[in-house]
Design brief:
There is one protein chain. With 125 residues, this protein is an alpha+beta fold. The protein has two domains: 39 residues; 71 residues, no CATH class. It is 41% helix and 18% strand. The chain contains three helices and four strands, in the order ααββαββ. It has a four-stranded antiparallel β-sheet with strand order 1-2-4-3. β3 and β4 form a beta hairpin. The longest helix has 34 residues. The model has no long low-confidence stretch (mean pLDDT 87).
Length: 125
């Protein structure tokens, strides 16, 4: 039994529709998983900002960031600096995902070795 060209085209169209539907389902699943992974975990509790404000910061300025401050390990008490550094490291605080709790005046992040950065938060308005 030979199928006509029209029957073959119709069957091919059905198979392509099934493949398209399967790929759409896979795409939706991948998107959902990617969105889940892409959202950084927000800390459920924050340390007091005093953990960071007791450090000695030096004013710095750049065209891209404007004014910010840097605390060098060598300019601070080792235990105080290490405690603040470890909190930022554990929370993956980087320039694009800074550490800042409710009522903080600054946001904090790590970049490079032996440095803690901070920048004054903009007023919420």
């Amino acid at each position: 039994m030979s199928q006509s060209l029209d029957e073959k085209s119709q069957r091919l169209g059905q198979m392509l529709a099934q493949i398209r539907n399967a790929l759409q389902g896979a795409t939706e699943a991948i998107d959902a998983y990617t969105n889940f992974l892409g959202k950084p975990m927000e800390p459920t509790s924050f340390v007091k900002e005093e953990t960071f404000t007791i450090l000695k910061f030096e004013l710095a300025k750049s065209e891209r960031l404007g004014e910010y401050e840097v605390a060098l390990k060598s300019s601070n008490l080792p235990d105080k600096w290490s405690h603040a550094y470890n909190i930022l490291r554990q929370n993956n605080a980087v320039i694009n995902s800074r550490y800042s709790g409710p009522n903080y005046r600054f946001s904090y992040w790590l970049y490079g070795e032996n440095r803690i950065y901070r920048q004054r938060l903009k007023a919420q308005g």
